[in-house]
């Protein structure tokens, strides 16, 4: 092996530069496309490349069939569904429950504005109100105890549902068990005083607990907490209309809608197993 030159001469500025650079450091002239390879004398020789056998004979070089297909940058495959997830609705067990945080924040924030806005102005008595009245009535309660209990229910069971089924499931359940349940209660008993977020809290509770109860009835270990605390929270939420001006019918309708959603979740989980 012949030894490389100690230097080369730039054709532009006639300066002596290293033979292992691509551009002249003095004038910036391009000397070569790429730097020459530095070979070590103690490096072992590389074996010749051989392609696959073609017709009983081995080809001298690699063919297009032997080249591995390059994957597209950034392309990846999602892992399998975790326990309790359904296809198309995926939660994040380690992520933040943003939808639940927004709902609880709206509920508490709107309740803090009650000293400036009379509660009777946000109370619904007929079906002729605008949509935002139904949303406001689904986030408010009369009394700090009722507001605190309903907010805890929405925050706890909204978080449990969101970490398993995603934020869209929480938002859809809140709209169905809150504003929609209030509208159904008004259609059944027009002229009654309808307000309270306990219906949305009961709906989220039932949507979470129904699949757990069905799984335990089949002898499956779900790994969830003791249901005694869930029973206590449900009893407190059911008692809110007795201690405040909330609608008992709206709470029962919200619980029924949540139970139907829980049955749907359980059916979808069983169908994919």
Structure keywords:
273 residues; 3% strand; 7 helices; two-stranded antiparallel ribbon; mainly alpha; elongated; Rhomboid-like fold
The gyration radius over C-alpha positions equals 34 Å
Order of helices and strands: EEEEHHHHHHH
Question: Biggest β-sheet, characterized?
Answer: 2 strands, antiparallel
- Taking pLDDT < 50 over at least 5 consecutive residues as the criterion, the unreliable ranges are 64-68, 71-89
Fraction of residues in helix? 40-55%
Q: How much strand?
A: under 5%
**Class computed from helices, strands and strand pairing:** mainly alpha
With helices defined by DSSP (H or I, 4 residues minimum), what is the helix count? 7
CATH hierarchy class name of the largest domain = Mainly Alpha
- Please identify which CATH superfamily of the largest domain we are dealing with: Rhomboid-like
How many structural domains are formed by the residues? 2
> Whole-Å distance between the termini?
66 Å
Shape: elongated
Give the beta-strand count: 4
Order of strands, widest sheet: 1-2
Describe this structure in words.
With 273 residues, the protein is mainly α. It has two domains: 1-34, no CATH class; 98-272, Rhomboid-like fold (Up-down Bundle). The chain contains seven helices and four strands. It has helices spanning 98-112, 131-137, 144-165, 167-188, 198-217, 228-243, 248-272; strands spanning 8-9, 16-17, 53-54, 57-58. The chain has a two-stranded antiparallel ribbon. A two-stranded antiparallel sheet has the order 3-4. Strand 3 (53-54) and strand 4 form a beta hairpin. Helix 3 (144-165) crosses helix 5 (198-217). The protein is elongated, with a radius of gyration of 34 Å. Residues 64-68 and 71-89 have low confidence and may be disordered.
């Amino acid at each position: 092996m012949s030894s490389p030159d100690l230097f080369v001469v730039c054709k532009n500025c006639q300066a002596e530069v290293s033979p292992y650079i691509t551009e002249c450091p003095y004038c910036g002239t391009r000397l070569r496309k790429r730097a020459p390879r530095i070979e070590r004398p103690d490096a072992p020789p590389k074996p010749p490349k051989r392609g696959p056998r073609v017709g009983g004979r081995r080809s001298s070089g690699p063919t297009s069939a032997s080249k591995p297909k390059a994957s597209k940058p950034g392309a990846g495959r999602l892992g399998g569904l975790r326990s309790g997830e359904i296809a198309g609705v995926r939660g994040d067990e380690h992520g933040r429950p943003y939808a639940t945080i927004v709902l609880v924040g709206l509920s508490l924030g709107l309740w803090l504005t009650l000293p400036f806005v009379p509660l009777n102005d946000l109370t619904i008595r007929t079906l002729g109100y605008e949509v935002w009245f139904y949303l406001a009535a689904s986030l408010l309660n009369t009394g700090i105890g009722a507001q605190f209990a309903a907010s805890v229910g929405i925050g706890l069971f909204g978080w449990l549902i969101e970490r398993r089924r995603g934020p869209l499931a929480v938002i859809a359940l809140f709209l169905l068990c809150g504003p929609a349940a209030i509208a159904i209660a008004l259609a059944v008993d027009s002229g009654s005083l309808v307000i309270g977020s306990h219906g949305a809290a009961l709906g989220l509770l039932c949507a979470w607990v129904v699949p757990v109860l069905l799984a335990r009835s089949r002898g499956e270990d779900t790994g969830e907490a003791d249901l005694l605390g869930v029973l206590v929270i449900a009893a407190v939420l059911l008692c809110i209309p007795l201690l405040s001006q909330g609608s008992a019918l709206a709470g029962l309708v919200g619980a029924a809608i949540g139970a139907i959603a829980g049955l749907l979740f359980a059916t979808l989980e069983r169908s994919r197993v």
